[in-house]
Each structure stands twice: as structure tokens, then as C-alpha cells.
Write a structure and sequence with these properties.
Radius of gyration: 19 Å
Number of helices: 8
Largest sheet: 3 strands, antiparallel
Order of helices and strands: HHEHHHEEHHH
Strand order of the largest sheet: 1-3-2
Length: 168
């Protein structure tokens, strides 16, 4: 007995990913690599990267909808993200310059966050398209919300701490 359906492989998934997704990923990696060097930034420019991350995560949450599992994931992810943001920023604290701009130490955290965010959003999209039943489950909603809140709050906390230095 032969079956017309074949098992979906990782190669199938990657080759059927729209080209624009890889351009977005390359742009985010390039932007993040610039953050590995010490740099001086004006306060408005400080907000660009976190706003991008928050927009990506908010979009992901909007896709899943708000359920009890989503709410629980959001709460736990937010708490963990705030704690992680404080720990990470303590290690890479910003310094205010006389002209109001900030000196930010080069760090690899932003690149790591971008890659992990991309991977989780990519995996989520794959699951939604390949296995809608799993994507409709509470466990999927919980994990998606937890990760989205975690990443968004890591970025927001780090940015808030840097803004506090900028306006001190």
C-alpha cells in the first residue's frame, strides 16, 4: 500500500520558507552584530532595536489569541524577562556621556536574543502550518506566550535601565 503523503523534512521546511524571511533574518543579524562593538548612541536610537523585538513578539501573541494558558505564559515570561534584563544589564551597564548620549559596551546578548527569537517564531510558524491541532492547544499557547513575554521584557528592562542612566 502506498501513500501519497510523504514525511516533511527540515529541508522541505527551509526550502518552502519565503525568501523575504531570510532577508529579514539577515538584516536582524547584521543589526545585532553591530551591537558587539562599543558604541555611542543617542537616546532615540536606543529605542529602535527593542521596538522591533516587541513588535515581533506582539505579533506572535496576536496570532495565538488570549486564553488562560496564554495569560499564565505571559505572566511567568514577564517575570523571568524582567529578572534576566536586570542581570544582563548589570553586566553591560550603560554610561552617560556629557552630551547626553550613552556609551554602550559591546555585547553578544542582542545577537543571541535575535537568533533565539527568530528560531522560536520560525518554529511556531512551522507548527501552525504543519500541525494546526498542536498549535491550537493550551501547551502551545502557554509556551508561545512565555517566550514572547520573556524576550520582550528582557529588551524592555534593559532599555528602561539604559534610559534611567540617560536621564539621571
Amino acid at each position: 500500500m502506498t501513500s501519497s503523503a510523504h514525511a516533511i523534512t527540515a529541508l522541505d521546511i527551509v526550502t518552502h520558507t519565503p525568501t523575504w524571511v531570510w532577508f529579514v533574518f539577515a538584516g536582524l543579524v547584521w543589526f545585532s552584530l553591530k551591537r558587539t562593538q562599543d558604541r555611542i548612541v543617542a537616546v532615540p536610537r536606543l529605542l529602535v532595536f527593542p521596538l522591533i523585538v516587541i513588535a515581533i513578539e506582539a505579533y506572535g501573541l496576536a496570532e495565538t489569541g488570549l486564553t488562560a494558558a496564554t495569560g499564565e505564559g505571559l505572566l511567568l515570561g514577564a517575570v523571568a524577562g524582567i529578572v534576566a534584563g536586570f542581570v544582563l544589564e548589570k553586566r553591560n551597564a550603560a554610561a552617560r556621556l556629557d552630551d547626553g548620549r550613552l556609551l554602550l559596551k559591546g555585547e553578544w546578548t542582542s545577537l543571541l536574543l535575535v537568533v533565539v527569537i527568530f528560531a522560536t517564531r520560525y518554529a511556531s510558524a512551522v507548527i501552525v502550518n504543519i500541525d494546526p491541532a498542536t498549535a491550537a492547544g493550551d501547551s502551545f499557547h502557554f509556551v508561545t506566550a512565555l517566550l514572547s513575554a520573556f524576550f520582550a521584557l528582557v529588551m524592555l528592562t534593559r532599555t528602561a535601565l539604559r534610559l534611567r542612566v540617560a536621564f539621571a
